[in-house]
Amino acid sequence: MSRRGERPMVPEAEFTSYYGQPIINPPVWEPLDIAGYLFLGGLAGMSSLVAVGSDATGRLALARVAKTGAVAAAGLSLVALVHDLGRPARFLNMLRVFKVTSPMSVGSWLLAAYVPAAGVSALSAWSGRLPRIGGLATAAAALLGSGVATYTAALITDTSVPAWHEGHREMPFVFVGSAATAAGGLGLLAAPVAETVPARNLAVGGVAVELLAFERMRKRMGMVAESFDTPKAKPFIRAAQGLALAGAVGALVGRRSRLVSALSGAALLAASAATRWGIFHAGMASAEDPKYTVVPQRQRTVTPTA
Amino acid sequence: MDMDTPRMGFFTDTSVCIGCKACEVACKEWNLVPEDGLNLTGMSYDNTVGLSADTWRHVAFIEQRKPVENPDALAMAAGGDLQWLMASDVCKHCTHAGCLDVCPTGSLFRTEFGTVVVQEDICNGCGYCVPACPYGVIDRREEDGRAWKCTLCYDRISGGQEPACAKACPTDSIQFGPLDELRERAALRVSELQGAGVTEARLYGEDPTDGVGGDGAFFLLLAEPEVYGLPPDPVVPTRDLGTMWRQVGLAALTAVAGVALAFGVGR
């Protein structure tokens, strides 16, 4: 619903608006569903890549953690996505067409193939049955998972929401870093220390990619980057950075301790989620304030007419 | 697409809008659009605020204080410097429509008239079209869960009638017709106004080379677009989709390489 109430005609000197009303309609998505899905999709997709690596290097406990994490996160993702629909009973209409112009359509088809693959992979790992089919499913889930973990960047940047769209070059790398942080964190949290070396490497690399890509994105956004400092977004962004650094340091320092590794893993998972929530809320803030739409558009119009 | 049917659209000439809101009412009546709040906003005579799922025509009222040549009675009463802008906003039926591009169900489609319409029996309320629109037109109806917007009266124009808002407009501020014809008429009108000294007169959304490929519903405005709550340089978000998919592909490769590295390093 649009905000109503008396507002000044010109809220700030440098730009004009219609009674301070937003130009674009802000997304109707719920943070728990959609920021939650961005996190879970990253965790699931990247965990499937961890699973294939673990199988290949004979780390059976890490493989089992990754496969279980992948199918659980993917299952919860489906619940969140269906719950966020205005007409949940019509969720199957998502598979009515395939459109490359709609990242949501591409994502629906990706998930439709990915979730069964991740499910078979996990079932086979737990039951010990059908190892060949399980291996194929694990490979398929890893391949599709690399898409599941990254396409969500196109999902949110293919909108007119300034803080999302203006980041369309860097967002996939922020998301892939955040996904690696989460999947590495899950491995550290749940796998025995003897098998967590790759999880630790992945998490540390993920933190580095996420933080660097985020800074680059923020720098290239110009004034729109202010939306990351708005009251709802800022605490999540700060928490994400703090938790990511703490988790990475903990993972490196406490490599021999089960407890420190697990705590680091939990911090890394929380960091990944906080990144998604921060980006979600920055987008909402940038949609609700007309200045983030008007000022950049004004700046790029060559000669404003009188 | 039927090649015999020309692309149809609206030309909304705000210089003759009198703010009667007949368009808002006619639209609601014809399309059975629900009530959208009975609030007094204090925003001049505007109590519908903006386009939404339940407001498909929206009349904006802007009170400007600036010296007026030949003030009328109203301007005189306000001290001779009140200029009142009124404009009826509507879905732009873009050439490159963001809502249509991102709709994952195929509910939004392009009609034989070149307009963009939601099929309400297919929409599952995913809400993707809402932030895709660079103009803030389409929205999800809370109590119903589906996306709604102007259809350019698809039912009426299919039967050879003009849309309800255009039919009801008493000053022909809202003109309906083949887009080519409307563009010619608008060009004449804007040069006529410029010639008469109305230097603020400009067309908005008529240019097929703009960020949305031109609007099927375009406007003659008497101030900067943002004064009316319109974006000054709208661009369809899918214009950058090639870059987005490329970056996603690179990020996916980074994921695969990163995991391989993570398993290769340190034992």
From TrEMBL, chain A:
Family: Belongs to the NrfD family.
Pfam family of the protein (one): NrfD
GO CC list: plasma membrane
Protein name: Polysulfide reductase NrfD
Residues that span the membrane, as ranges: 34-53, 65-86, 106-126, 173-191
UniProt organism field: Kutzneria buriramensis
Xref: PANTHER family: PROTEIN NRFD
Keywords for this protein: Cell membrane, Membrane, Transmembrane, Transmembrane helix
Membrane-topology descriptor: Multi-pass membrane protein
Classification of source organism: Bacteria, Bacillati, Actinomycetota, Actinomycetes, Pseudonocardiales
Keyword Plastid: no
Localization of this protein: Cell membrane
TrEMBL record, chain B:
GO molecular function: 4 iron, 4 sulfur cluster binding; metal ion binding
GO biological process: cellular respiration; formate oxidation
Transmembrane regions listed in the UniProt entry: 248-266
Stored CDD domains: FDH-O_like
Binding positions ([4Fe-4S] cluster 3): C91, C94, C99, C133
InterPro entries per record: 4Fe4S_Fe-S-bd, 4Fe4S_Fe_S_CS, FDH_Electron_Transfer_Unit, Formate_DH_Fe-S_su
Cofactor note text: Binds 4 [4Fe-4S] clusters per subunit.
Keyword entries, A-Z: 4Fe-4S, Iron, Iron-sulfur, Membrane, Metal-binding, Repeat, Transmembrane, Transmembrane helix
Pfam families: Fer4_11 (PF13247), Fer4_4 (PF12800)
SUPFAM superfamilies reported in the protein's UniProt record: 4Fe-4S ferredoxins (SSF54862)
Binding-site residues for [4Fe-4S] cluster 1, renumbered to this chain: C17, C20, C23, C169
Record bears the keyword Membrane: yes
Record-level GO cellular component terms: cell envelope
CC cofactor: [4Fe-4S] cluster
Subcellular location(s) of the protein: Cell envelope
Residues given in the record as [4Fe-4S] cluster 2 binding sites: C27, C150, C153, C165
Entry binding sites for [4Fe-4S] cluster 4: C103, C123, C126, C129
Domain 4Fe-4S ferredoxin-type residue range list: 8-37, 82-113, 114-143
PANTHER family: FORMATE DEHYDROGENASE, NITRATE-INDUCIBLE, IRON-SULFUR SUBUNIT
Protein's name according to its UniProt entry: Formate dehydrogenase iron-sulfur subunit
Organism: Kutzneria buriramensis
